[in-house]
């Protein structure tokens, strides 16, 4: 072995190779060592550039949604406004000055009405374009206690429609932006700010009393369907007066804006989805809403679908900052949310003060729904009798509320066959399999009919359908054309998607 090493080292070529290898190892080691040292230096430099967070530092804790509590240090004007507002809320503010500021409201509403307004407690959920204008109008009109609930921050795109936000407010929570600006106008108003996302689980806490004062009114200015439905359902169930703003997006005609019962709202996708979800929860009317009857048309703004490349990134529900929250930018003309918000505030002022006002009445169709339910019961009994079933005491698992939901929300008050809106009824679309009557409970017979089995027709169309399809040997495909089959299929698929909310 030693002789082999001696021969190798004596070779000139071997010496060159050895020298090259050793040099390469040394150079590689030097390069790797330099890179490691450089990375360490960069990391230490980055750490050194990050200031420590303290009570005095301008950075503060973030909320669970990344909203900063206070990014910009208050100006001297802000500090004076904050001090004045604090003294005013402690009673250190001349009441004559307040009455002078509210003089026009006072002569309109009378002293009694203004006193009711000044002692009112209103909760505004959603502090964007609609909510900010509603809040500003209420504060300027004399409401003394206002709770603001919103998790979001002011953005640059908010400034085209927000009532009080300025460029300096971008990045700050909307609730504190509104409080800070309105305290400069009505320093006696007490603002209870909740920089939080409203939800079903937090409804009780967010809609609770303030200093023992239960809310006189709640304003829904939310554009998230889940939160909107949760808020309206909670208020309806707990008998809290509430008014809801429907969609201002893609609207441009202020003459089409109405205030009416939610059952009368039409031509508004947000209203339709909200109304349908609430009906599934047993709430069909009794909630006033601000909505627009404006229809879309050529050249008008529309809510465009998400581009295909967005769907390739994964589930659409995962594209938003929050679960089940909208991920699209809504086309909004800045004036329309303001009109919606002022209409909402106007309603609240009239309601609290007892000032006379009349709006569109709700649809009173209970008798019609009862008649349709009776007709459906007759269809099921005849179908069971034709199959040799004992129909004594046969029940169907469909209620008057279900009938109203199917007629109004699924089939929009029209026959799926002809589009007629008179003499309507509900009937099975396909003939059921044998055994559609459940007899497992002694002394009780009930049909296994489900809502998704039913379609809306006129009575004449249903009689023909019963003869040819339900009691005959034909299928709907044998009787109806492709357009009708497609329409029924779309309605049934849509209803399946809504079943999870029932």
TrEMBL record:
Bilayer-spanning residue ranges: 12-34
Lipid metabolism as UniProt keyword: no
Highest taxon of the lineage: Eukaryota
UniProt cross-references to CDD domains, sorted A to Z: YgdL_like (cd00755)
GO biological process per UniProt: cyclic threonylcarbamoyladenosine biosynthetic process
Chief subcellular location: mitochondrion
Molecular-function annotations in GO: ATP binding; tRNA threonylcarbamoyladenosine dehydratase; ubiquitin-like modifier activating enzyme activity
THIF-type NAD/FAD binding fold domain sequence ranges: 104-360
One Pfam family in the UniProt entry: ThiF
Keyword Nucleotide-binding: yes
Subcellular location: Mitochondrion outer membrane
Keyword annotations: ATP-binding, Ligase, Membrane, Mitochondrion, Mitochondrion outer membrane, Nucleotide-binding, Transmembrane, Transmembrane helix
Membrane topology classification: Multi-pass membrane protein
Gene Ontology CC annotations of this record: mitochondrial outer membrane
PANTHER family assigned to the protein according to its UniProt record, in alphabetical order: TRNA THREONYLCARBAMOYLADENOSINE DEHYDRATASE (PTHR43267), TRNA THREONYLCARBAMOYLADENOSINE DEHYDRATASE 1-RELATED (PTHR43267:SF2)
Role noted for this protein: Catalyzes the ATP-dependent dehydration of threonylcarbamoyladenosine at position 37 (t(6)A37) to form cyclic t(6)A37 (ct(6)A37) in tRNAs that read codons beginning with adenine.
Family of this protein: Belongs to the HesA/MoeB/ThiF family.
Protein name: THIF-type NAD/FAD binding fold domain-containing protein
Species per Swiss-Prot/TrEMBL record: Glonium stellatum
């Amino acid at each position: 072995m030693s002789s082999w090493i001696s021969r190798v080292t004596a070779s000139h070529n071997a010496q060159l190779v050895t020298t090259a290898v050793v040099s390469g190892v040394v150079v590689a080691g030097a390069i790797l060592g330099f890179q490691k040292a450089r990375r360490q230096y960069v990391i230490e430099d980055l750490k050194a550039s990050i200031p420590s967070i303290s009570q005095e530092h301008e950075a503060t804790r973030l909320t669970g949604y990344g909203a900063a509590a206070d990014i910009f240090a208050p100006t001297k004007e802000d500090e004076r406004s904050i001090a004045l507002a604090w003294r005013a809320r402690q009673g250190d503010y001349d009441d004559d000055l307040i009455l002078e500021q509210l003089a026009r409201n006072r002569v309109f509403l009378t002293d009694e009405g203004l006193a009711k307004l000044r002692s009112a407690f209103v909760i505004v959920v959603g502090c964007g374009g609609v909510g900010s204008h509603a809040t500003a109008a209420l504060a300027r009109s004399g409401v003394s206690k206002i709770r603001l609930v919103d998790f979001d921050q002011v953005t640059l795109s908010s400034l085209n429609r927000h009532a009080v936000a300025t460029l300096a407010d971008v990045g700050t929570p909307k609730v504190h932006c509104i409080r800070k600006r309105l305290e400069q106008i009505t320093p006696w108003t007490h603002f209870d700010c909740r920089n939080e996302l409203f939800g079903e689980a937090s409804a009780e806490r967010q809609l609770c009393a303030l200093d023992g004062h239960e809310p006189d009114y709640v304003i829904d200015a939310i554009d998230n369907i889940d939160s909107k439905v949760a808020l309206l359902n909670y208020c309806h169930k707990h008998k809290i007066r509430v008014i809801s703003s429907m969609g201002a997006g893609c609207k441009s005609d202020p003459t089409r804006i109405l205030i009416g019962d939610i059952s009368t709202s039409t031509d508004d996708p947000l209203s339709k989805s909200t109304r349908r979800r609430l009906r599934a929860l047993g709430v069909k009317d009794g909630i006033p809403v601000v909505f627009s009857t404006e229809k879309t048309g050529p050249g008008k703004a529309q809510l465009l679908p998400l581009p295909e490349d967005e769907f390739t990134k994964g589930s659409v529900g995962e594209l938003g900052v929050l679960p089940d929250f909208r991920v699209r930018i809504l086309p909004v003309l800045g004036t329309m949310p303001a009109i919606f918000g002022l209409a909402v505030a106007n309603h609240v002022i009239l309601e609290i003060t007892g000032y006379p006002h009349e709006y569109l009445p709700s649809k009173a169709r209970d008798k019609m729904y009862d008649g349709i339910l009776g007709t459906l019961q007759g269809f099921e009994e005849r179908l069971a009798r034709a199959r040799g079933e004992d129909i004594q005491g046969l029940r169907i698992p469909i209620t008057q509320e279900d009938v109203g939901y199917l007629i109004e929300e699924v089939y929009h008050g029209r026959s799926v066959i002809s589009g007629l809106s008179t003499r309507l009824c509900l009937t099975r679309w396909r003939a059921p399999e044998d055994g559609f009557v459940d007899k497992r409970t002694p002394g009780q017979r009930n049909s296994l009919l489900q809502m998704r089995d039913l379609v809306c027709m006129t009575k004449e169309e249903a009689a023909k359908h019963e003869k040819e399809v339900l009691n005959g040997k034909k299928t709907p495909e044998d009787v109806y054309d492709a357009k009708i089959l497609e329409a029924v299929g779309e309605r049934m698929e849509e209803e399946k998607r809504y079943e999870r909310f029932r």
